[in-house]
Design a protein that fits this description.
The protein is of the alpha/beta class and 280 residues long. The protein is built from seven helices and ten strands. An eight-stranded mixed β-sheet has the order 1-4-3-2-5-6-7-10, with helices on both faces. A two-stranded parallel ribbon has the order 8-9. α6 links the parallel β6 and β7 (224-229). It is globular and about 50 Å long.
Length: 280
């Protein structure tokens, strides 16, 4: 029974990581591109900036924030290929799509300056990268060390640097929140007790530590920085798990947790469903 539980948990984490996070990194050759008109963003509505918005959980966050009447700055590495995201933007002038590879820090700086006069109520880190399914169960002898370095850059270092870049805009907002989509794969206590996903698990543990450490700085600016586990989510086309939930359920429950965050939640790692604290 214990082995079955561990395997089920491991497969669940893989299914989420394969597509729940939009793949980022690698300095793609996509042209710098904006879809939508930033001047159409409302001055009377709160603003959220979401990384990795082209599919899965990120796309659903765009959808649900837009339904709430928020301004949404949705980033993606290749906006011209993000058909579903473009459809949402075409139907709502309060959605603007910005090209962003999260490891392209010059582009991050450009966007920081571009939106320098706009308060960012929620900075939501969703972009990420993970090993392919077939490589997920490799032992230490099969670890792709180039992927390990890239995973650390995309999953851990980039969110920290982007948080720093936009800290002023977040601190100037009404809600003052930085939300990080993490994973139980990065928890020493909650992750599967088996040799798998070395690159991804280490990068998520690093992400949690970067953000936990940063929370001591955000507290001084009244900014709430919280990490969330989205649960086991069906996001891979053609792959459904009976024990997993759909993206709309995961995101709607995370939004309830986000809505209820207080200063006491700064620096914590919380569960999507009830806001319960997850052990490191």
């Amino acid at each position: 029974m214990r082995i079955h539980k561990i395997f089920r948990t491991a497969v669940g984490i893989i299914c989420f990581t394969l597509a729940g996070l939009a793949v980022a990194g690698g300095h793609a050759d996509a042209p710098v591109l904006t879809i939508g008109n930033p001047d159409k963003l409302s001055n009377d509505a709160p603003t959220v900036l979401i990384t990795g918005s082209n599919r899965g959980i990120g796309l659903e966050f765009v959808n649900q924030f837009a339904q709430r009447g928020w301004n949404v700055i949705a980033t993606a590495r290749k906006p011209d290929q993000a058909e579903e995201l473009k459809a949402l933007a075409a139907a709502n002038e309060q959605i603007v799509i910005e090209q962003l590879d999260v490891t392209d820090y010059e582009r991050v700086s450009t966007l920081t300056n571009k939106y320098g006069d706009r308060a960012i109520d929620i900075l939501l880190h969703n972009a990420g990268i993970t090993p392919k399914y077939k490589s997920a169960f490799r032992t230490i002898s099969g670890v792709d060390w180039d992927m390990a370095r890239q995973s650390l850059e995309v999953n851990a270092i980039a969110p920290a640097r982007i948080s720093h870049a936009f800290m002023g805009q977040v601190a100037a907002s009404d809600q003052k929140k930085i939300i990080v989509i993490s994973s139980k794969a990065g928890s020493f206590e909650e992750s599967p007790e088996m040799p798998m996903m070395y690159e991804y698990r280490a990068s998520k543990s690093a992400l949690n530590m970067y953000m936990y450490t940063l929370s001591f700085e955000t507290a001084k600016r009244d900014v709430i920085l919280t990490m969330l586990s989205p649960g086991q989510v069906n996001t891979t086309p053609g792959m459904k798990m009976k024990i997993a939930i759909e993206t709309d359920e995961s995101v709607s429950k995370m939004l309830k947790v986000i809505d209820g965050l207080t200063a006491e939640d700064n620096g914590k790692f919380l569960n999507y469903e009830d806001g319960a604290e997850i052990p490191w």
